[in-house]
């Protein structure tokens, strides 16, 4: 299976809200892939594993697990491009999932990707 599928499944499993519009979930997945077939595979895999439910354009995560900024988000200094907004950043925030590292993100985009904002 494509590593991006596993990374996307973990990202969806760590959504912080009881429910999010499907469009918001897809916005977060676009930090991993913009391929609509792969996006669908990620959503289908997460649902098949019981990590979320989809209904009427709403995604409801069921894992109850969230990204811990103290344990799972690492900051590094350097020259990076944010995976969400494309801005040049000097401090990159990376999320460490079991499936791999996801990032870099700027300080505001990391909060959006994790659902903190």
Task: Please give a handful of descriptors for the protein shown.
117 residues, alpha+beta, Arc Repressor Mutant, subunit A, 2 domains, 3-stranded antiparallel beta sheet, 4 helices, 6 strands, globular
Written overview of the protein:
By secondary structure, the chain is an alpha+beta fold. The chain has 2 domains: about 5-60, Arc Repressor Mutant, subunit A (Orthogonal Bundle); about 75-115. It has helices at about 5-15, 20-30, 35-50, 105-115, and strands at about 20, 50-55, 60, 75-80, 90-95, 100-105. Strands 1-3-2 form a 3-stranded antiparallel beta sheet. The longest helix has 13 residues, at about 35-50. The N and C termini lie far apart (about 30 Å).
Q: In brief, what are we looking at here?
A:
With 117 residues, this protein is α+β, with helices and mostly antiparallel strands.
Mean pLDDT, all residues: 92
Helix % is: 25-40%
- CATH names the topology of the largest domain as Arc Repressor Mutant, subunit A
Beginning-to-end CA distance, first to last residue? 31 Å
Beta-strand share of residues:
25-35%
Biggest sheet strand line-up: 1-3-2
Q: List how many beta strands DSSP finds.
A: 6
Secondary-structure-based class equals alpha+beta
- SSE order, as H and E? HEHHEEEEEH
Instruction: Estimate the global geometry from the Cα principal axes.
Output: globular
